[in-house]
Amino acid sequence: MSEPQLIIRPQTKLGPRLRGAGTTAALAARLLSFLPPRRLNQVLTRLSRSARPATYDEAAAARDAVNTVSLACRAREGCLPRSIATALLCRMSGTWPRWRTGVRRLPPFEAHAWVEVDGRMVGESYPTDYFSALITVDTN
């Protein structure tokens, strides 16, 4: 049984360059999200090389841009492409947030992917210890 959901369009105004970069990141993330976890980890690890760590504001701005241009990333179930696209958009500016995927610590089972900076989840309403990370891609 499905439940109706209301998806609110963000009110973020993007310039043409950021809109284009966000769309590119969202499309690339959608393709990468079909990779097996091990291969996705390898690809993201390679992409994160020689990037400086992103600040919270940079990662939050990238997440907002991705949510503005992509309905798939904005959806509740879009955590994997949203987190990948956020990391890719940060990488386009030379930075990299910590990218993570994991599972909820307590039942029922729930998988989730997110980005974080300085131990804080970016744009998420969950407590910091809500998920147990299984895969982490940090700056090298």
Class based on secondary structure composition and strand pairing? alpha+beta
Strand content: 15-25%
Summed up, the helix count is: 5
Q: Estimate percent helicity.
A: 40-55%
Q: How many β strands by DSSP? A: 6
Order of helices and strands: HHEHHHEEEEE
Tell me the major beta sheet: 4 strands, antiparallel
Average pLDDT for all residues: 92
Summary tags:
single chain, 140 residues, alpha+beta, 4-stranded antiparallel sheet, two-stranded parallel sheet, 44% helix, 19% strand
Topology:
Layout: H1 16-32, H2 37-48, E1 52-53, H3 56-69, H4 71-74, H5 79-92, E2 95-96, E3 98-104, E4 111-117, E5 120-121, E6 131-137
Parallel strand pairs: 1-2
Antiparallel strand pairs: 3-4, 3-6, 4-5
Could you characterize the architecture of this molecule?
This protein is an alpha+beta fold and 140 residues long. The protein contains five helices and six strands.
Could you write a compact summary of the structure shown?
By secondary structure, the protein is of the alpha+beta class. The chain is built from five helices and six strands.
